[in-house]
Amino acid sequence: MGAYESNLDDILAEDMHHWYNKFMKESPSGLITLFELKTMLEMQGMSEEASSYVDQVFFTFDMDGDGYIDFVEYIAAVSLMLKGEINQKLKWYFKLFDQDGNGKIDQDEMGTIFKAIQDITRCYDPPTEEIVTLIYEKVDINNEGELTLEEFIEGAKDHQDIMEMLGKMMDLTNVLEIIVNGQRKQVKSSK
After folding, report:
1. Residue 94: how many CA atoms within 13 Å on its side-chain side?
2. Which sign does the torsion angle of CA 127, 46, 104, 170 carry?
3. What is the spatial distance between Cα 118 and Cα 181, in angstroms, rounded to a whole number?
4. String of b and e for 106-141 (b: at least 16 CB within 10 Å)?
5. Tens digits of residue pLDDT in 91-118
6. Sequence-distant (≥ 6) Cβ neighbours of residue 67 within 8 angstroms
7. Which of 14, 37, 166, 169 allows an S-S link to 18, with CB 3.0 to 4.6 Å?
8. What would the DSSP string read from start to end of 75-125?
9. E-only strand ranges, the chain
10. Nearest to residue 63, comparing CAs of 51, 75, 54, 53?
């Protein structure tokens, strides 16, 4: 995790012109499609949940809904993830979890995203079910089995352990680095 932070700090220290050149080198059209993002992340052979998660990330970064992530959208996403206020990040997490767009997160939606993250990161501790159960036990005070945006934000802010867990699980530093640097994710075991 520390290596990601130092690399990202180096990236952020560079001027915008240099950052733009890196982005354009990876995507000469100035636009990244969902297919290109999955190719950059080497998604072949990943679970359906992992693929669905990358779809959700892409569509939340694609703020104007045109089917592309352009440089401005990319910079906005980087800024949100690295320097955004707590409420902004929680709203973004909520949007990512709310897969059907009904304004509420049910346990299945949250579980699907967490499982996908674990499939991508190859880190399965703690188990998805444990994470979802903990969040709903503490945050779903009405025991409805779903969370509104307001419940999610207030509940997360009221429980430091949930905030830390969300921050760790939802860290997209490696995804953002791959987009800017064109680096390949190192998940293959050495022979």
Report:
1. 20
2. positive
3. 23
4. bbebbbbbbbbbbbbeeeeeeebeebbeebbeebbe
5. 988 988 898 999 999 999 999 888 888 8
6. 33, 34
7. 14
8. HHHHHHHHH--HHHHHHHHHHHH-TT-SSEEEHHHHHHHHHHHHHHHT---
9. 31-32, 69-70, 104-106, 146-148
10. 75
User: Hunting for tokens 């290596």 — which residue is that?
Assistant: 3
Q: Which region among 3-7, 31-35, 80-84, 137-141 has the lowest average model confidence (pLDDT)?
A: 3-7
Torsion of CA 50, 52, 57, 59, to 10 degrees: 160
Q: At what angle do helices 16-26 and 173-181 cross, to 10 degrees?
A: 80
Nearest to 134 by CA among 99, 115, 110, 104: 110
49 residue type, one letter: E
Q: Which residues contact 110 (CB under 8 A, 6 or more apart)?
A: 97, 132, 135
User: Given this model, what pLDDT does residue 171 score?
Assistant: 73
Mean pLDDT rounded to a whole number for the chain: 79
What is the token pair recorded at 121? 């990161």
